Amino acid sequence: MSATFTLAAELRTDTGKGASRRLRHASRVPAIIYGLDKEPTMLTFRHDDIMHACEDEAFFSHILTIEVDGKSEQVIIKDMQRHPAKIQIMHADFQRIDAAHALHVNVPLHFLNEEACPGVKEGGLVSHLMTELEISCLPSDLPEFIEVDMAGMDVGDSVHLTDITLPEGVSSVILMQGEGHDQAVASIHMPRGEKIEEETDAEDGADAEEGSEEE
């Protein structure tokens, strides 16, 4: 993992909706760290710091370092609440990690060779049925993203979870439930308008043929 993320935080003692509202008005983000059988820690962050970190996709699939009162903790982000209408982060949840224990985290899917695959060259469109994948791995094996190779796919083809090559030490949480949970990740199909046009052309051809027979 090439990127590193370190966030400075402050402890907070005031809780509740009123306290959180005051923090947001002061451009602070209320947050919580939990896990590893420790008491949850209530924190606040500068809004600009978290907003800037969120601009990098890797922020959501990396081990993060949070520094508070001269100490640091290794965490992953588990949830982030955003304002429905404003560009504002309302709250963030972080989970502590242990290097010896596997974690579950969603990582983004990166689709390769889309434009070069036969189906797209023939005019087909790619549908991304999944954009991220929940994986299980040790913190040291956590990938920044998972690659999905679309090379060789034709119109009507689909790529499934079992078609993806996962990095060593990484497992799909869905597939861990059994073979019956294999899901399609992406597919290639012709634009709906072209199908209608093809059907219309076929109907016109049939009408013309019938007309010639009547003559």
Structural key phrases:
215 residues; alpha+beta; Ribosomal Protein L25, Chain P; RNA Polymerase Alpha Subunit, Chain A, domain 2; 2 domains; four-stranded mixed beta sheet; 20% helix; elongated
Question: What would you note in describing this structure?
Answer:
The chain has helices spanning 17-25, 47-54, 118-121, 192-214; strands at 5-11, 28-35, 38-46, 64-68, 71-82, 89-96, 103-112, 125-128, 132-137, 146-149, 158-160, 171-172, 184-189. It is of the alpha+beta class and 215 residues long. It folds into two domains: 5-97, Ribosomal Protein L25, Chain P (Beta Barrel); 104-194, Beta Complex (RNA Polymerase Alpha Subunit, Chain A, domain 2), CATH 2.170.120. The strands form three sheets. It has a six-stranded mixed β-barrel with strand order 1-3-2-6-5-4. Strands 10-7-9-12 form a four-stranded mixed sheet, with no helix packed on it. The model has no long low-confidence stretch (mean pLDDT 88).
Shape, principal axes of CA atoms: elongated
- Count of distinct strands: 13
Strands of the widest sheet, in order across it, are 1-3-2-6-5-4
Overall tally of domains: 2
Estimate what percentage of residues fall within beta strands.
35-45%
Name of the CATH homologous superfamily of the largest domain? Ribosomal Protein L25, Chain P
Largest sheet: 6 strands, mixed, barrel
CATH architecture of the largest domain: Beta Barrel
For this structure, what is the CATH class of the largest domain?
Answer: Mainly Beta
Tell me the radius of gyration: 25 Å
- Share in helix: 10-25%
- Low-pLDDT residue intervals, each spanning 5 or more residues: none
